[in-house]
Amino acid sequence: MDRDRSMAHVLFLLPNLQDTDASRAACRLAEGLLAGGERVSVAALGATGVAAEAFRSLGIAPQCWEQTAWTVLRAARPLRQWLKKQAPNIVHLWGIETCTAWRWAFLGHRRPPAVWTALPQASPETLPRWLRWLGGTTERPFPFPLIAAAAAAVQIRSTPSLRDELQLPATAQLIVSVGSFDHADAFRDAIWAFDILKYCSPQLHLVLIGDGPTKAEHILFAQRMAGADCRVYFLPERADTLSLLAQADFVWSTDPRGGHISTILDAWALEKPVLANRTASIGRWANLEQLAWCFEPNDREQLARLTRRLWENRTLASERCALARAWVRQHAHLGLAVQTARQEYQAALAAVLGERI
Question: How many CA atoms lie within 13 A of 269 on its CB side?
């Protein structure tokens, strides 16, 4: 099969354009596909965010429907019409939400060839029964692509100092955690553990990056926990998260629901010490015990002890950080992800052509 003809146009359908694992992986995969000569289009069902600007920087103008779970059904017809107008050779669906909308949109109509990727926090990677009746199971499962950020040095040099932005001295020690404030416990362990750790040194500071409906609740919790000595900083979603990670002394992944895979991959690529909850989603692919410092869910004291140990003896971190960077270079580089994507897209196209013959 001629790759140039069969995969000239790939369309990504995402849940939203916020700073999520799906949007980061899709953006990085799009960059690799564009470099290989494919055309890439992007659409999203949910709210727009910093990922929209990331796609625009690649020359892709994303379409955002900004639908809720209740209005996806009403958007079925315009979504189908828009997708037919785009005429992609292959559609890449990211998550159960987009798979649902896709099947509703083409219920009773012939669907273009498609693959679907279960998001890291969704398990197992199979379609639930309630979704199968919406038109069969023709979407081929596509493994979640692990892609660490590329061209890190260029992006890092172009970003102002995080310490200057927070009005902190150059000697300040920064703990950075990135995620979504989408549930009550998203960063609660991080705030609690830091309240234990901060007494080790006045130079320690915690920076939480993300947005979501429970952010105000977390801010209030941090203020009540710390009192007058509050050294917890809340930053919104931003396009230069990679550069902020590069300025961190430690990276925490404390979300009990799995956390940001891309944040851990980027931290490993930058050789930053990562302290991760044992439930971190990246544990499906990598041995966390060898590449990160793990703590039990809700064990804030253990997280504080591990961080203090590394803070007092930085040489302990160097060997494991080097192993983590080597693992990323072997398993999470862009070239491997693009090669896998092309193979999966070809297989999906071949299966559909075989059914139609």
Answer: 26
CA nearest 94: which of 153, 21, 171?
21
Residue 57 CA to residue 34 CA, distance in Å, equals: 12
Of 215, 150, 203, nearest to 175 by C-alpha is 203
Backbone angles phi, psi at 304, to 5 degrees: -65, -45
Segment 150-181, tens digit of pLDDT: 644 444 555 678 999 999 999 999 999 999 99
CB 238 within 8 A of CB 207: no
pTM score above 0.85 = yes
Closest CA to 254 of 202, 310, 176, 144: 176
Handedness of CA 297, 308, 276, 234 (dihedral sign): positive
What is the spatial distance between Cα 173 and Cα 270, in angstroms, rounded to a whole number? 17
Please state, in angstroms and rounded to a whole number, the distance separating the CA atoms of residues 101 and 68: 11
Strand order in the sheet with 140-141: 63-64, 39-44, 9-14, 90-94, 114-117, 140-141
In the structure encoding, which two tokens stand for residue 120, read together?
A: 């890291």
CB 173 within 8 A of CB 203: yes
Would you call 204 helix, strand, or coil by DSSP? strand
CA 198 to CA 255: how far, in whole Å?
20
Domains, the chain, ranges and CATH? 3-147+333-356 (3.40.50.2000), 152-331 (3.40.50.2000)
The pLDDT tens digits for 269-314 are 999 999 999 888 888 899 988 999 999 988 999 999 999 999 888 8
Establish how many alpha carbons lie within 13 A of residue 110's alpha carbon, considering only the half-sphere containing its beta carbon: 7
